[in-house]
Design goal:
Layout (H helix, E strand, L loop, with lengths): L1 E7 L7 H5 L15 E2 L4 H4 L6 E2 L10 E9 L4 E9 L16 E14 L2 E14 L8 E16 L2 E14 L10 E15 L2 E13 L2 H6 L4 E13 L2
Antiparallel strand pairs: 1-4, 2-3, 4-5, 5-6, 6-7, 7-8, 8-9, 9-10, 10-11, 11-12
Length: 238
Amino acid sequence: MGLTLAVFGENDTSGTLLALRGWSLDDIRANSFSQFKLPPLGYFLETRQAPFTTPVADVDHRLGVYGRVDVRVSDALALNVFYYNNNGDRTTRRADNQWAWSDRFWDVGAVWDVDPDTRVLSQFMTGETQMGRVDPERWVIVDFVSGYLLATRKIGQDAVTGRVDVFETSDNNYDDVGNLSEHGWALTADYRHHLSDHAELLFEVLHVESHRPGLAQLTNLDPDQSQTVLQGALRLSF
């Protein structure tokens, strides 16, 4: 059994992208100087929130907490539970209209080694993110849920992996903010081919289906989106 507890700062704006832009399946990482452009915000938020977000920022000078418990149920099965709360003061903002969001969520995960060559992973997360005042109307309050199930199988020195994701946000906002609800799913298949001790080829196909009504309200895009991505990579290690 393992236990992790931590206190952190500089994560006050963490709910901005999820609530205002929606879910995204990618490998982009935020760094200390990152800026991400937001979609059109509507007349209510466009004078209150900057058109971009800086994911690493201290706005309210408060500390957040998180904790994780890892439990080994058997030689083949391990479970973990994670809780996150950034303790954000959702009514505090900087002069550049970067707000402190109040974010908290629970995350439960599992790893199952079916046999020496097969592993199954899963994760489920549920939480809430909030920004702005509550009087006379609530500004942004979004509940979110996501989960995935992944299975990977070694074939000699190669490996094949399949994954299914589901995600959803539920809108509890002030009407003038616009509809921030969303739901969708994704399927991913990967193949990793061993070339040598220092090189391997990777191929992936990703298909995503989502429905976000706010796309039609604010951007005139179809609220139903369907995307398929094919990609490959050569990975070298030394």
